[in-house]
Every structure is written in C-alpha cells, then in structure tokens.
Amino acid sequence: MLSTKELKIGSLVLPYRFVQSPLSGYSDYAMRKLARDFGCPFTFAGVMLAKSAANPRVLRKSEFHPHDDEHPVGAQIVGEEPEIMVKAAKDLVAIGYDLIDLNFACPAPKVLRRQRGGYLLNNPRLVREIIEAVRDVVMCPLTIKLRSGWDNSQESIENVFEICDFAKKTGIDAITIHGRTVEARYKGTADWGILAEIKRSLGNVTILGSGDLFEPHRIVELMQQSGLDGVSIARGAVGNPWIFRDLKAMFTGADIPAPPTIKEQSQIIRQHFELLCKLYLPKKAVVYFRKFLAQYCRRHPDRKKVQTDFVAARTASDLAEAIVKWYGDNDLAAQSFPAVRV
To answer: How much is the pTM?
Structure first.
C-alpha cells in the first residue's frame, strides 16, 4: 500500500491516486460508468477536437455532454489554435465538465499531419501560448498531457522540460506524461526513468504517469520507484474495468479480489453492451463493441474461439448467442438485449 492515497488536482481531491485516461473512440459514457462502478474516482470523456467542441451546433450533440451521475469528469481537447482552444475549454466547462486537459501528446498520424497533439512538442512557444491563454479564462482545474519528447534527441527532451517549467509557473494543476516519444507511438517499453526525472525537477507539481499500466502490482511498483503522484490508466482499462477494483484494494491495503469468474465476466459484458444500446443504434453498438470484446475475451480459456464468434456477430441476438455459448449464461438465453437509444 502506498503511504498517501489521495490525489489532489487543483480544487479536486480524489480518494485514490489513479484516473481513467481520455481514449479516443473508447471512453464514452458506457466505459466511464463501468470504471466508476469499479472504483475509479475520476474519468475522462474521449479526446475532443477543439474545433468541434467550439462549434455550438456540434456541441449540442448529446455525446459531448457529461451525465449527471459521473462527476467529477474531465474533457480533453486537442488543437493548434489558441483562440479555438480557449473557446472549446470555456464551452466545455459551461456544459458541465469539471476539468479541462490540453493534449500535446497524441501520436496519431492524422493528428500529427495537422500539426496538433504530439506535434506541438516541437513548438514550445505555441504550447506556452495555448497554456497561458486557456489558464487565463478557465477557473476549473486545468491540466496538460505530454509525451517524453518528439523523439529521443536532446533538443526534444529539453523542449519537454521547458514546457513543464512553464506549466508550473502558469499554475497548471497537473501534468500527465506518457513515457514514450511521439515517434515511438506505442512501440517498445515506456521509460518511467524520465518521468521520475521530470518529477524531481518540478517538485510539488502533481505529475501523473502513463504507459504500460496493465497489472496492479506493477502499477504500484512504478509509482513507488518514480515518486509520481498518480497514474492515468489507458489501454489497461479497455475491456478490463476490474483493474480499478484491484487498484483500489491495493491503495486501501485490502486483499486483491480473485479474478472474475466466467459468470462475472458475462455479467459485465452484458452490462457494458446494454449501456451502449442506450447510446447508439443497435447495429452501430454491435460493431463498436467489438474492440472491447477483443479485450474482454482475453480472460476466457478459449479466447481465440470466443473472439471469432464475437467478431462474427452482426446483431444483438448474435452477440447474445455467443455469450450464452461461451459464458454459459443461461439467464440470457431467453432474453434479448435492449435496442433503445436515448
């Protein structure tokens, strides 16, 4: 158990030192709801393009809005124009988000081509301008997301330290850093050594680490070794809300629960899909759910066979049949999933 279990991000005081990362195409309300049910104290909506969030017509869509039962919740925006980032941040706070995060880390090629996200690590001046502009108008906690550099060059490392120093002077409430360069994307192993070095240089600034966070024991070990204040769980939470239950146990000194049984896995898969059916039309929900199912079935002893049937599912009935077949969920056999969108 770590000596301090609370995580302070500006005015927010979270009971545990972990959050769920903003994940483009994943962290919708359904994923956030499950994370909170399993003990995650703070979640993010999916990464939002600032130009979209600053557009009143787009912002009116329900998927942009936080739900009443999930506060506190954060919004992350990515963009390269300070005035657009400012408007997006203000508008997202106005519709109910409790924290704004500025993304200077995304390694997706389509983001980099437009000189956004991780590309901006090559332009500390513009990053400073965006941070200062948003800090001046947003009164809620404001955080930033970085990578350890654009590449491993000394100039790139110095850029990250320059941005971090400026963020500290400007009153940024926390910095999340992924321990890979932008060029590395998700290849190789995350370098938590440089995260520890940044933490030592910034002192009392809240620093969250990201990268290769899949096993609770290893997560706590990395926190202890690096001295970081918290962690942001990304890929490790996809199809695995149990990671938050297990982390909570470790932070409170309790025994880690036994791995979920086949029946428990079935119940959560069903619950996740039922939540999706309230967000999306049935056909879209089935297709969208496949990327989660690929991770859920990793726990099944016949993973490959289960995954084949999940991928082949075209309707909610197909998916229900696959769950009954592989998870022995007899309670589901006579039922059908809801097909209501709200």
So the answer is: 0.93
